Model the fold of this input.
Amino acid sequence: MARRRQPVARAPRRAAAAAAPSAPITVTVDAVGPGGTGRASADVDGTPRTLSIPYVLAGETVEVRVLRARGERLDTELVRVVAPAPQRQPPACRHFGACGGCAVQHWPDDAYAAWKAEAPVSALRHRGVTAQQVLPLVRTGPGTRRRADIALRRTADGACAGFARRASHDIVDLAECPVLMPALVALAPPLRTLMAAVLPRGAAAEAVVNWTDTGADVLLVPEDRLPLDLDRRMALAAFAEAADAARVAWGGRRSAEVVAARRAPRLRLGAVDIEPPPGAFLQASLASEAALQQAVRDWLGPAMRVVDLYGGVGTLSLGLVPQRRVTIVEGDRGAVAAVEAGLRKAALSGVAAAQMRDLARDPLPAEALNAFDAAVFDPPRAGAAAQAAELARSGVPTVIAVSCDPVSFARDAQLLVGGGYRLELLMPVDQFLWSPHVELAALFRR
Done:
């Protein structure tokens, strides 16, 4: 899953103000692209242009307003649907069409599932790679997302907490969210109270929230550096109590200070308890995490020595110990420290280890990879080009890839296939409900 976080929602600045919106124009949607946005053709100021339109279905007649040029394409906002497609569905959320988090709540479910399943297959086809078998799409239901980056802003009237509007820094104040766990939605009111107490008027912040086995782990990241004075500490402690949060921290991910720890946030991964660092990367839902973990277990076969590249806090591999020997390689110092501490506490340091390494700049070389029977890798959205090239040079019999981006995965898969691997299994996972994003797992063997 993607590790690159969205930037903190910032207050609009005068210098960045958008141009005055154009007059609405009426067009018919030709098709919907892989990003979930529609395409239409129209003459704009006497010039034939391609329009990009959110929240539409193919064949619909819609009224749109041009916002900006993006290369040869014009980005638009949907004003109204003049003639809806027969298959258009009522959205599950009152914020749909304003909140930028969901793109396709209006799709019929069968078409939506087919579109999600096709995304990685299409990306591979573009690279000339074919999976020998594509497994059925693993579905993730509503109300199950256990991590979120909630945008916050102090306003003249108090504060707002929610998600950014599509292509905007404006925040849609959260009244409901059918994607998130209800416990995360319930954090919005106490977060508003907290922001009214700790932010100057007009300032913005972000709440990075992970739901752990012991409750909410909340990292508050202010847009601008603010002193953690006594008043702010008291407000953060009051928030932790009001929200029944396990832990509350303040600052950047690499410089966070824990202000309130009512109980340790905990992740149980096999025989190991992990206390993740504030703002740690976790899989977006427990159900999809379990599906990925099961795929790794099933696909490893007899492999006993496993290297987990971009391993984070060991989500995909710690459940394999003590039956298998595992080495986790990760570039985040806090994640490595958390794994080491968990292994020591479980008395498993002899069968598993974690090491810090920036695999994008310094990939584990083929010669080191050859010490393992299998490799698992789960890179950020940008993929693992350098590490995939080393895997392609190696003699590792089994490689299991997990990815949140079909395009970067297809590039990495092409490198592996070029190095002699077969792509035997591909499993798409709908971890990011009603968004264009798709998670996947893939099995490569020599």
